[in-house]
């Protein structure tokens, strides 16, 4: 498995890099189809932020943690990532689809970032644009995908209607879904 490291505002030494790479490669015991993973280490106001992302042949798994020590932040983020993988495997088992090693359909291919453009101070500035392929799925599966990536919303193609929908987590902890009306 390929492990990519991104450092923002800090440098990680070779010992820490080797430690992280060894731990991330152990994720394959949960998902043998992990194609690649990324570890982003950044320093912000004296705290290290570590974001771990794994592309398991289409399923995107992500976790993020902050700590004063980069190793502690990484260990906690990896622990959260393992928990999400196990939860996803349990979901597949309950749904009767788990076969130990599963092919998935959501992909990071085609994701891109655009540099921010300067704008007047009263206009909103879009800092980042991501282009993602959307796959047909039911809303329950979309909620599971949203939880796996650790976001509060998720865009998908509704398998029943063919429309683009968005599921989101509400402030009360329940979920909502946005449907287009023409």
Secondary structure layout:
Layout: E1 2-8, H1 14-25, E2 36-44, E3 47-56, E4 59-67, H2 70-94, E5 136-137, H3 139-149, E6 153-158, E7 164-169, E8 175-178
Parallel strand pairs: 1-2, 5-6
Antiparallel strand pairs: 2-3, 3-4, 6-7, 7-8
Describe the protein's architecture and organization.
With 182 residues, this protein is of the alpha/beta class. It folds into 2 domains: 2-94, Double Stranded RNA Binding Domain; 105-182, 2-Layer Sandwich (SHC Adaptor Protein). Helix content is 26%, strand content 29%. The chain contains 3 helices and 8 strands, in the order βαβββαβαβββ. It has helices at residues 14-25, 70-94, 139-149; strands at residues 2-8, 36-44, 47-56, 59-67, 136-137, 153-158, 164-169, 175-178. Strands 1-2-3-4 form a 4-stranded mixed β-sheet. A 4-stranded mixed β-sheet has the order 5-6-7-8, covered by helices on one side.
Q: Counting H and I runs of at least 4 residues, what is the number of helices?
A: 3
Query: The CATH topology of the largest domain is what?
Result: Double Stranded RNA Binding Domain
User: Globular, elongated, flat, extended or rod-shaped: what is the shape?
Assistant: globular
Number of strands: 8
What's the alpha carbon Rg, rounded to whole Å?
A: 18 Å
How many distinct domains?
Answer: 2
* Share in β-strands: 25-35%
Oligomer: single chain
- Mean pLDDT, all residues: 81
The termini sit apart by 45 Å
